[in-house]
Amino acid sequence: NPVGDWTIAVYMTSTDLADFAFDDINEMELAVSRFAPGAAITVFWDQWRGKSFPTGSQAAWDTAGRAVIAPDTNLGAIATEFQILPEQNSGDPAVLKGFLTWTMEVRPATRYGLVLWDHGGGLSGVNFDDESGYDSITVQELRKAIGDAGMSPSALLYDACLMGNVEQFYELRAVAPVQVASEEVISGPGYDYKTAFATLQSTPAAVTPEMLARGVVDSFTTQYGTDGASTFAAVSSAGMTAVATAIKAFADSTTGFSDAQWSRLRALVGQVTRFEFPQYVDLGQLMERVSTTSTFGADARSAAAAVVSAIGEAVFARMSDERQTSGMSIYFPTTASQEMAEVSLYTEWNSIVGWSRVVNRALGRAGNARGGGAGGLWAFAERRK
């Protein structure tokens, strides 16, 4: 097959968000009808048995399927013919790998964007398959699946809740040069696919990963910018090493904290934005507060300010809600019930940054992070991803 300029691969998991899946595929068809030559969308769709839909000339089917999206302007019916497959566990990274391999065969391109569509849970992963015991793809499995497929995506995008964590941005920094995600839960409709990739409507060969990501953020802002509670950001992976280095310096600066200083840090965590999962706190806001709080010494204040600066360098497009979020959250539980066992999966982050020491001291413990009772949390909500 001829090599195009951009192929957007959308991976959709079996979920209670089925109505939104139908709407989104129709929006993708309209988007493709407006694309310039050289741009395409492929989709893997694991339909939900609770509500399945027909496609093209095919009667409603409730297994899995994959397709190159066909151009169409009717938003009321899916025109694309799917290659219908047996039932798949779309929370299995091997299934994602197979879809990526297939995408590169049928629509090879100079650049790829990968969209992960479903519920998201931050540290606990993404793409929770309702019909496979809520099996999900962890960030570590995602990295391996993409690598094993041989794909080098130019942009990694989440149409899913709560994936704007500094930990996952860091762990996936070598996977794609650009990552796009929300700190907060997002509304069930998710992306407006009619406009999300509008940059591909003219000269796709000239569209850089940063341009594509900015376009997605702009589309999301237009769609949700007035609701006061949505967040969305595009991050340069090249900036994540500096962010991690700055956070490590802050963690190191807390070594000699007094009980009063730890108490003050816990208080600040309670004052800044926390998200639907309360163990995720806005990183930029927290560090900004620390940098201007006289309770802390000059070293800690300076280190916190450096984190704020590094975030500003890495986040190159951002939708900020009324809370003025920074674009990156960080794991900071304040009670044992908020702890997540999945934090132990982030081996690079944990070994290099040492954030677990900060969390544990703030919780009144010494040592490194331990698994807690909130393992497996994810954003299961009828109208949220």
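the 2nd protein, sequnce then structure:
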Amino acid sequence: MASAIITELRRGGSHTLKAVQRLVQSERVETVLAPELLHLATSNDTNVAVPSFLAFAKLCANSDVPTQLPSIFSAPDVALAVSGQLQSPDIRIQAAATLALTNLTSHNLALESTILSRVVEALEAENAHEGIQRALLGYIGNASAVPDASRSLLEETNCMQVLTELLQAGRGESLRSAAALTIGNVLSTRDVMAQNQLREVGGLPDLVLLLSSSYAPDTNESSAWALSHGVHLNVLSQVNPT
């Protein structure tokens, strides 16, 4: 079955497009198709690249990805190729790349420091679409649950500063709420560095403002979640009385 699909994907033209479209609509995309789909996803033909990337993103959620993907090609190389599309001028490609990376994090993949840095850079891009930013926040939330990745976010990127900027007035409430939730996820590791960074970038006042009844209950809850960890008594951050 997979070999027949690969043949169709390689035929080019309308044959390739139809094969990719069928994969997008299918219930499951076989992991073995990853190389073919990633090749098409990074091509210059957006008519084929967009659905190919969506199909690739779908297969990244497969349970056999951790065992099958390394036997096909290097997982870090895959993540690098995908993250390189976060700066694509086509928002559809950006969305597919974000979905693929987020799905890979469910397998503890795509968490290298270079990938983390690229995600944060895309998050703070001047022309970033709020929908893409919310999706990128999902990636960061997943990454923060992995100790090494969480530490890399704090030590090697300006993640906390960027997240705090997304809390500020002028942003959509759904984005501000998602940013607050993500800050809470990063802080939930009880890492003193995260708590200190939140204070240093002035994030606490912005979180407090989101507790107002003028905001939706979900926004209030996200802010409260972040604040509960931002001011949590962390023995590592306390100075012993003399």
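Residues 235-242 have pLDDT under 50 and may be disordered. The two ends are 72 Å apart (CA to CA).
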